[in-house]
Amino acid sequence: MFYASLVIIVNEEGSVLSLKRSGETKSYPLKWGLPGGKRELLEMPEDCAIREIKEETALTVKEEDLGYFYLLTKGTKDFYCFIVTQWSGDLTLNEEHEESQWVPYRELKEWLQVPTDDAFFIAMEAKIDKL
User: Fold this and answer.
1) Could you give the residue ranges of the DSSP H alpha helices within 26-117?
2) At 39, phi and psi to the nearest 5?
3) Pair 52, 35: CB distance under 8 Å
4) Half-sphere exposure of 112 (CA within 13 A, CB side)
5) Facing residues of 75 across strands?
6) What is the pLDDT of residues 14-55, one digit of tens each?
7) Nearest in space to 128 (alpha carbons), one of 107, 109, 105
8) Could you tell me the pTM of the whole model?
9) Where do the domains of the chain lie, and which CATH numbers do they carry?
10) CB-CB contact of 6 with 34 (8 Å)
11) 53 burial class (0-12, 13-18, 19+ CB within 10 angstroms)?
């Protein structure tokens, strides 16, 4: 069952936006992760991704600029994973995060501190390599 969306935001240098969660968050406080979050009732994965990007970073993304690349399953939770290279606005973090960092995509596996799997990184690298 669809649970949440995760988004890899890639800049022109091939780096990915990573966000450090606030110490006040319930899940993975003070850990580095990616923009994204749980869906709202009847929300589609793409709509969830766009909403979460806007809420967490103040960046605006159009649905046609989202590229689906992987379904990450953790237990009973499915995370739809997208890549985006086009957005508008200035990066401004909300209260859920306290820091941001652009990380070269080939270093992301060592950087992230939230659950993923090896196939996630293989799929992500393959998608970014084609950009």
Assistant:
1) 45-57, 108-111
2) -75, 155
3) yes
4) 21
5) none
6) 999 999 999 999 989 999 999 999 999 999 999 999 999 999
7) 105
8) 0.95
9) 2-129 (3.90.79.10)
10) yes
11) buried
Tell me the H-state helices in 1-131.
45-57, 108-111, 118-129
Strands 77-84 and 66-74, sheet pairing: antiparallel
Residue 94 amino acid letter: N
* Residue where the block lists tokens 């996630």: 120
Name residue 54's beta-bridge partners. none
Give the pair of three-digit tokens for residue 99: 């820091």
One-letter amino acid at 116 equals: T
Q: At 101, which amino acid appears?
A: Q
3-state DSSP percent of the chain in helix, strand and coil, to 5: 25, 35, 35
Edge-to-edge order in the sheet of strand 36-38: 36-38, 2-9, 77-84, 66-74
- Looking at this protein, which amino acid is placed at residue 31? K
Task: Tally Cβ neighbours within 10 Å of residue 25.
Answer: 15
How many CB atoms within 10 Å of residue 119? 11
Over residues 55-104, the pLDDT tens digits come to 999 999 999 999 999 999 999 999 999 999 999 999 999 999 999 999 99
